[in-house]
Amino acid sequence: MILLTVPSLSQLLNGDVQLIDNYSPTQPSAIDKKVENLLSKMTLSEKVGQMTQITLETVSKKKKINQKYKVDPQKLREAITKYHVGSIFNVDNSALTLDEWHQLITQIQDLATQKSRLGIPILYGIDAIHGVNYTLEATLFPQNIAMAATRNLELVKKSAEITAYEMRASGIPWNFNPVLGVGRNPLWPRLYETFGEDTYLVSTMGEAYIQGLSGENNPIVPTDKVAGCAKHYLGYSFPLSGKDRTPAWIPERMLRDYFLPPFAKAIETGIHTVMVNSSEINGIPVHSDRYLLTDVLRQELGFKGFVVSDWEDVKHLYKRDRVASSPQEAVLMAVMAGIDMSMVPDDFSFYEYLLELVKEGKIPESRIDESVRRILRVKFALNLFENPYPDPEMKSQVGTPESAQVSLQAAREALTLLKNDHGLLPLNKNQKILVTGTNANLRSVLNGGWSYTWQGDEESLYPKTQATILSALQAKLGTANVTYIEGTTLDQAVAAAQNVDVAIIVLGEPPYAETSGNIHDLTLPTAQLQLAATIAKTGTPIVLVLVEGRPRIITPIVDDAQAILMAYLPGALGGNAIADVLLGDYNPSGKLPITYPSHPNDLVPYDHKPIEEDNPNKLDPLFPFGFGLSYTSFNYSNLQSDRNQISPGESLTIKVTVRNTGKRMGKEVVELYLSDLYRTVSPPVKQLKRFQGVTLQPGESKTVEFTLNQDDFAFHDRDNQFTVEPGEFKVSIGDLENIIIFL
Ligand code: BGC
Fold first, then answer.
1. Across residues 154-165, what is the average pLDDT?
2. Tens-place pLDDT, residues 402-455
3. Is any atom of ligand 1 closer than 6 Å to the C-beta of 176?
4. Same domain flag for 543 and 639
C-alpha cells in the first residue's frame, strides 16, 4: 500500500528529493522558448519575487472601514522594483466599478512593465466565485451548489464564459475558481462553493466551468478568457468537525476514489493553476506535503501549471500547524514540497526567507527556476506580455441583459421542489398570500458570501433593481394581494396568516464566507422554526422557501409545510426565479446535489456503504441526493443496453425512454447510477455515472443514450490500485434496473 509521506527535512536538505519539471528542453514550445529567454536574464531576487504574491492592501494607503483601497504609489513601486512581486490579489474590499478597476490595473501594470528592470507584468488574481463578484456592474450567478442542482453543463459553461469575459473587461486575468472540493460534510461553511457531494457531478461541472473560463483545448488563453485555479487541493472539503480549516482524516483509497478525480479532470481540461488546502490531512498540513503536491500532482496527474498557496498558509506551517520550527523552515518545507507561489499575503517575509535559503544552499536555484518557469508560462499564455492592460472596448458588454438572462435561467433550473402535497404549487395568481421570514426581503441572502464583499453581507451594495423574493412576487401578483410581515414579528405574522390563502415562509441563512460561517448545529435557528410552527396552527397552507448555502435541518416543521422549495443561493435573479416557480411561470426541474439530512447527527451521503443500511437505526435522509419534483410527471421505460456483458477496454451503450405523462411541459434530469454488487473493498450502494436533461411536451417521449467505459466500473482496490474486478454490476435509471456482467 502506498502511504502518504513527506520527505524528512534532512532528505530535503541533502537534496535526496528528485525535482520534477515538466519543461522539456528537447521540444520547447513557442512559450517555453520565451520563458527560457526571460529566465536566463533574471537575477535570483527577481525570480524569488515572481513567487511572491501580496494583497492589494499591502500596496495601498491606510483606509477606514467601508472605504475602498487606494494604491500608495510609493508602496507599489517598492513591491515591484525592490521585491519584484509576481502577483497581487484582492482582499476583503468592496467591489469596484469597471472604471475603478481599469484605473487600478493600469496603475499597477504601468509600474510593472515600465519601471521594473525586465518589465514583467503583474498577474492580478481574484475570487470570481459566482460571476465577477468584485466588479459592481458584473453579472452574479447562482452559487456552485445551485449550479450543480441544474445538472446543466451548458449553463455552467456559459456562466463561466460570461465570468471570463467580465473579468477581462475588468482587467483581471486570473480567477481563484473553480472550487473542486467534493462537499461531503454538510456542516462545512464552504459547501455552497462546491458542486455538491458526488465526485462525478463535481468533476463534470468543474470540467464545463474550466472550458467556459479558459476555452477548450487551448493552452494560449484568448483575450476574453482567463486562467482558472482548481482549489483547494486536496481534501479541504471534508473536515471532520465540519468547521472551516480544521483537519481531515482521509485514507489514501478514499482520497483517490472521492477527492482526487475532480482535480485529475481539471488538469486534463487544461487548468492553469492549483490552490492548496489550508488545512491538513492525516496530520500533514497539505502545504508541506510533497507526496500530494509533487508526486501525485506533477508525476501522476501531469500538472504543468503553477501551485499557489492559500492565504498565509506557508507561515501557518510554523505559526499555527507547528510542523516547522521557524518561519524560514516553513518556507523551506513549502517550497520543497511543491509550492510555486506564496499568498504571503501582507509582507515580504517569504521573499526574504526564500532568498536566504537559496543563498545558504538549502534550496537549489534549479528549484526556483522550476517555479518561475511555471509562473511565467501562465503569464505568457495569458498574453500579458503583449498586452497587460484592460481593454476599454470590453466594458460595454459587461452586465448585459443577455448575461442576466443566463443567470435567471440558471436560478430557475436550480430551484428544487422537495414537497408539493395536493398540488399546492403552483399558486393561483388570484390567491392572497402572506410573505414572511428572515430571508424574504433581502438581496444579500440570495447571493451569499463572495458578493461585492468577501462576506457578501453589505445589503446597501446590492443594486436596487435586483428583486427580492417579496418584490418579485409583488410584481407578479400586485401589492394588494401580497401581505408582508417581517419574520421577526411573530404575532403579526400569525394574525396576517389568518387572512390569506397561502403563507410563503422564507427561511434560511444570512450571508457568510469561510470561517465566519462555522456553526455548532446544522438545525435551523429555533426562532425560524417557531415562525413556521406557529403559522401552521392557523391552518393556512404553508409554502416553505429555503434560501441557504447548506441543508439546514428543518425536520420539526416539515409536516407543517404543504410545499417546500429549496432555493440554495440562487444569485442576483433568484427572487425572480422563485416567483416564476411559485406562480407556475416556470416548471421546476432542479435535483438535489446533496443529501438533505433529517437529523443533525445523521449526515450520511447517498453513496454510502451497504453496512450503513444494515444498521438498526436505518438511514433516514429527509430528501435523497438526486431528488426533485416537477409540476408534471415522467415515466421511464425500455431500459436497454447494447450488451449484457462487457470486457476490459470495451464500452457499453445504455438507452432509456422517458415520457412526459402529465399536463405541462417540463424538463426531467435522467440520472444513471451504477452499483458494483460484489468487490474486495466494500462497494458504495450506488454511484452517479451519467446525467442528461430532457425537455418534453405533455405526452412526448424521448430516448436518452449513455455510454459507459471501463473506468466507470473501476475503483481503488485493497492495494490502492485503480482496477475493475469482474462480476455483476447493476445499472439503474429512474425505477428501472439492469444487470451487466464485467468479464
Ligand atoms: C480562501 C481562498 C481564496 C483566498 C483569496 C482564502 O481565505 O480560502 O479560497 O481564494 O482567500 O481570497
1. 98
2. 999 999 999 999 999 999 999 999 999 999 999 999 999 999 999 999 999 999
3. yes
4. no
**Could you tell me if residue 346 is inside a domain?**
yes
Mutate to test the pocket of ligand 1, among 190, 310, 451 (most ligand atoms within 8 A of CB): 310
Confidence of residue 7 (pLDDT cuts 50, 70, 90): very low
Q: How far is the CA of 298 from the centre of ligand 1 (A)?
A: 23
Specify the 3-state DSSP secondary structure of 741. strand
Cβ distance 76 to 59 under 8 Å? yes
To the query of whether residue 310 is one of the catalytic residues in this protein, the response is yes
Q: Is 627 within a domain? A: no
Q: Which of 257, 295, 310, 676 is catalytic?
A: 310
310 C-alpha to center of ligand 1: Å? 6
DSSP code, position 445: H
| Domain end position, chosen among 347, 368, 397 | 397
Place 198 in a pLDDT band, splitting at 50, 70 and 90. Answer: very high
Q: 42 and 160 share a domain?
A: yes
Query: Does 127 contact ligand 1 (Cβ within 6 A)?
Result: yes
Q: What are the Cα distances from residue 493, in Å, to 47, 50, 196, 505?
A: 64, 59, 35, 10
Query: Which residue range is the domain that position 256 belongs to?
Result: 9-397
Write the residue with the smallest CA distance to atom 7 of ligand 1: 311
Separation between Cα atoms, residue 594 and residue 573, nearest integer Å: 22
Average pLDDT over residues 385-399: 97
Structural domain total, the chain:
3
In a domain, 221, yes or no: yes
Top mutation candidate among 57, 127, 180, 194 for ligand 1, by most atoms within 8 Å of CB: 127
The one-character DSSP state at 96 is B
